[in-house]
Amino acid sequence: MQETSTGKDKLKGQLPADVIVGHKTGSSDRTPEGIKIADNDAGFVILPNGQKYYIAVFVMESQENDADNAAIIASISKIVYDTLNSDIQ
User: Fold this and answer.
1) Does residue 70 contact residue 11 with C-beta atoms inside 8 Å?
2) Average pLDDT of the chain?
């Protein structure tokens, strides 16, 4: 999972480059109306102190483009990382 080459703009997108992340992305097609059924990323993150946490972010029934969906996932991932990392400092 650490070698996943897709979705570098999702869970890992806004995290520091040296943070270890193992993840698996997923996405669906769009409906004829242009709605993305699902866009997601799930995995683990290892904090600087060695603690690990697991995270899964699913964006469903989105009218946003793929880049915006990835940015939503990255933003949520960053909030979780910052919150958990600040708890240990």
Assistant:
1) no
2) 91
